[in-house]
Amino acid sequence: MMQMTATRARAGFTFLAYALLGSAVMAASAQITLPMWPVPATLQSLAVLLIGALAGPRLGAAALLAYLAEGAMGLPVFAGGAAGPAALMGPTAGFLAGFVLSAWLAGFTPRAGLLRQGGVLLAAHLAMFVPGVLWLSGFVGLERALMAGFVLFIPGTVVKTALALATLRATQGTLRRA
């Protein structure tokens, strides 16, 4: 009985450590920013896809929830060093919420099949835009939200999804052996 409790404690600690590692990757990716208004371009969506695809749906979503909690507590983890509850109520809050959904969806990326992997990663990437654009529309209207929160990001979405797919494909053999 005691050994089972120790094993569960180790598993819980390992899960938490990996979730915090994922949140640190998110925080770093948020600081690589191309300033735009109202939504900055960052490497966050690439990090979301990789965290979800490599960690799986549960751990991927947990890492993003940890990231949001860190930002809510005042740690400067959001784009441009933003932090606090106000950042979770501003124009980009919908995208932040969409990161959790996207990481969860990316966690279902199949381990085989280039087209299937690419399709799941693209769907996961596009999923973050739904809550992002809907929330942003409350600040700037739907037409401007679609332009500033989605259309301008289409080229980057294609490139970052392709980078995530290439990274996933390149690491698959290594991860299987580990």
UniProtKB/TrEMBL annotation:
Molecular function terms from GO: biotin transmembrane transporter activity
Cell location: Cell membrane
UniProt keyword list: Cell membrane, Membrane, Transmembrane, Transmembrane helix, Transport
Signal peptide stretch: none
Keyword Membrane: yes
Superkingdom of this protein's organism: Bacteria
GO cellular component: plasma membrane
Metal-binding among keywords: no
Pfam family, one: BioY
InterPro entries in UniProt: BioY
TM region positions: 37-55, 62-82, 88-108, 120-140, 146-168
Membrane topology: Multi-pass membrane protein
Similarity field: Belongs to the BioY family.
Protein name as it appears in the record: Biotin transporter
